[in-house]
Specification:
Layout lengths: L14 E7 L4 H4 L7 E7 L12 H4 L15 H10 L2 E7 L5 H13 L6 E5 L5 H5 L7 E5 L5 H8 L4 H15 L4 E2 L5 E10 L5 H15 L4 E5 L22 H14 L4 E3 L15
Parallel strand pairs: 2-3, 3-4, 4-5, 5-7, 7-8, 8-9
Antiparallel strand pairs: 1-2, 6-7
Helix pairs in contact: 3-4, 8-9
């Protein structure tokens, strides 16, 4: 009998999709028009509940018990297959609820010849104890830092404690991977990348997030300031009318200007052309 937690998943990892993903940061997936990419493995279920989630088809619908489109391959085989296809890395997307199985799968894949970096692509809502388990498994932490204040964290993700949880987890990530290291072609080999997604109307909160992480970690981490928020049909716009439109460019420009004023230079920003549904993988 399966035991389900908030994520809606059982013990065994369920893969919704794996692919060469070319729309991450350039030092993770390479050029978007290249033949290679990041070896993204999208897991079903999620330990957070963001109302605007772009992966809602696998994060939330999975909780309803559907078993369609589950990839049956074993994780080590998937990792090695992606490496053979030319993946720069193995990019584990929303992996937290399968941590123990992933640690074992990476260990086994490395015995069979896996040599490319492992990325932990997470919402940031992690327990420090979970991150401690990953110190010999993960090379790159690619973590969101979604909110500073309790109010938006509660409203949009049902997690009023988000800042405290995410900041504690980030401390452990940076302690494990304290410096950014690059390999051939400028591809990231090790380190911490913190993503902030600009949501409509949250300029002040975004500024507080950037101020906090830069004042604490400086140039030891890379900061990705994203403007790719895309309204999702699954979002209840009657309840969240402020999310029915993309983030205004003027808001994003102010956020970038604030970051520059802080002295942030080790950062990635997106042009207006980057806002596209091409960032949302097709899970059907």
């Amino acid at each position: 009998m399966k035991t389900f937690g908030f994520c809606g998943m059982g013990k065994e990892p369920e893969i919704a999709l794996y692919m060469l993903h070319r729309f991450e940061e350039p030092f993770i997936s390479g050029p978007p028009d290249g033949k290679r990419g990041s070896g993204a493995v999208f897991f079903r279920g999620c330990s957070l509940g963001c109302v605007y989630c772009q992966n809602h088809k696998i994060s939330f619908q999975a909780k309803n018990g559907g078993n369609e489109n589950i990839k049956s391959e074993k994780l080590p085989d998937v990792f090695l297959k992606l490496q053979e296809r030319g993946a720069y890395n193995i990019n584990l997307v929303t992996p937290t609820h399968f941590t123990l199985s992933i640690v074992e799968a990476v260990r086994e894949a490395r015995k069979q010849g896996l040599v490319i970096p492992i990325i932990w692509n997470t919402s940031g809502y992690e327990l420090p104890e979970t991150i401690e388990l990953l110190k010999d498994t993960v090379d790159i932490y690619l973590t969101d830092f979604k909110y500073y204040k309790r109010e938006p964290a509660q409203r949009y993700s049902g997690a009023p404690d988000y800042f405290g949880v995410a900041s504690a987890a980030l401390d452990v990530m940076v302690r494990q991977r304290p410096e950014l290291a690059y390999g051939e072609g400028g591809m990231l080999k090790s380190g911490v990348v913190v993503r902030y997604l600009a949501l409509p109307g949250l300029l002040s909160d975004g500024c507080r997030v950037l101020e906090y992480i830069y004042n604490k970690y400086g140039d030891n981490i890379f900061i990705s300031i994203m403007n790719q928020y895309t309204p999702q049909r699954a979002c209840n716009f009657e309840k969240y009318p402020e999310l029915k439109d993309k983030t205004p460019q003027r808001q994003y420009n102010k956020l970038v200007k604030f970051a520059q004023g802080l002295g942030i230079t080790n950062a990635f920003i997106q042009s207006g052309a980057a806002i596209s549904e091409s960032f949302t993988p097709e899970f059907d």
